[in-house]
Amino acid sequence: MARHTIFDPDRDDPFILSRTAIDEFLDCRKCFYLKRRLGLKPPRLVPLTLAIATDAILKNEFDEVRNGDQSHHVWQTHKLNVSAFSHPDMEDWRNNFRGIRFLHEATNQEITGAVDDVWQSMETDQLHIVDYKSTSKKEDPDIESGWGFGYKRQMEVYQWLFRQNGFDVNETGYFLYINGRKDTGFYDTGND
Known about the structure:
This protein has 192 residues and is an alpha/beta fold. It has helices spanning 19-27, 29-36, 49-68, 73-77, 90-94, 148-164; strands at 15-18, 82-84, 100-104, 109-113, 117-121, 127-135, 174-179. The protein is built from six helices and seven strands. The longest helix has 20 residues, at 49-68. The model has no long low-confidence stretch (mean pLDDT 87).
């Protein structure tokens, strides 16, 4: 059976509900209905090239750490006793068109989400969901203003998906926030 993202009550196969679709519903129910029930597409957004580039660079960097079973300076700087979690489904979990999935049988909805990374506690073996964020502003980035509420909700959906798939997930998730500041003279690793 074909998977679908336009809700049709006459279909028996699961309705795909991505983490982004959940955000759409919470932000504007009318917009959600127009897109997910009637199939009307909103205007295309400008691609976030900084975010796309940052995600790719960080994924490559942490994959190198993961494959080499080594530490990372971010973990050392912030005294995190974690390692990069290895799992055969990692590439699927990161893929926007596959992601990690869970079929909510009561509603016949397949909930999906694509994570950036997963780290594992070296003390408890619990998983920490990791999301990469990027911006370019003078102030230090934070998740208590602006897009922060949506970021937190995104993290909660990812944590829920992993728990529903049988993983022991720590309540603490990590946002690895990169700030492309233009007012410094040199690359600042934040280690000062």
